Amino acid sequence: MIGHEVLRVFCGPDGRHGNELGVVRDGAAVPGRAERQAVARELGFSETVFVDDPGRGEIDIYTPSVRLPFAGHPCVGAAWLLGVEQLVTAAGVVAVRHEDGLTRIEARPEWAPGRTLRQYGSVAEVEALEVPPPGEWIYAWAWQDEAAGTVRARAFPGRGDGIDEDEATGAAALLLAARLGRALTITQGRGSQLMAGPRPGGLVEVGGRVVPVEVQPAPPRAEGARRCRKGEARE
Question: Which residue ranges make up each domain of the chain?
Fold first, then answer.
């Protein structure tokens, strides 16, 4: 298995919950899209990030089944891990700010993958939902306190790739804040927390807390494999 780090992104105020993210810092070790897709499938996270240039913040994002030009929780997690002021994604440059223990990104709503935003009449209705069959990507939400801008949400990717429910989904939070045109504090999944809201220039910001979980080092290569790589580099 490739060496990678695991983060929990959009943790609650107590540091619990959050959506796990796999990050392969040595993106050069997995150079092709097919190879990266296979690694993302093997790791099994809702998203895996490959870092192509840590100084520039250049990243590449995959679910177990598809490559994504942009996604929220991978960008927030990668920005926290790399400590950069911007990220370079396939969709475009993503501004980053770090403040009061939160990592926030700014992106355009049109960069976010398509989501069906489905409003329910109460928090209880959202919490009682069963996982729907594979199909459309559903972001189910209800107001906890509309005046305060607090929302209860759950996310059902509907992809059929083993991810029945996403614990915390930055792109969907971004789309919801864009639709409602106001700042939101969203509790999603078991207790993850996301902050989102409009920014100047048609941008939307989304952010939250990030906690490291573990580092899985790459297994050492056999001596013969190292010699082969060196021989290939000389050709």
Answer: 4-218
Give the model confidence (pLDDT) of 86-104 as tens digits.
Answer: 999 999 999 999 999 999 9
Superfamily (CATH H level) for 4-218: Diaminopimelate Epimerase; Chain A, domain 1 (3.10.310.10)
Q: Measure the CA–CA gap between 26 and 20, rounded to whole angstroms.
A: 19
Helix/strand/coil for 46: coil
Q: Nearest-CA neighbor of 62 among 97, 87, 27, 94?
A: 27
Instruction: Judge if pTM exceeds 0.70.
Output: yes
Which candidate, 30, 90, 31, 97, places its Cα nearest to that of 60?
Answer: 90
Tokens 């989501």, located at residue: 115
d(CA 12, CA 188): 9
> Which residues lie closer than 8 Å to 115 by C-beta, 6 or more apart?
137, 138, 139, 169, 171, 172, 175
Instruction: Please state the rounded mean pLDDT for residues 159-184.
Output: 92
> Using H for helix, E for strand and C for coil, what is the string for 158-204?
CCCCCCCCECCCHHHHHHHHHHHCCCEEEEECCCEEEEEEEEHHHEE
* Nearest alpha-carbon partner for 188 in 18, 6, 20, 8: 18
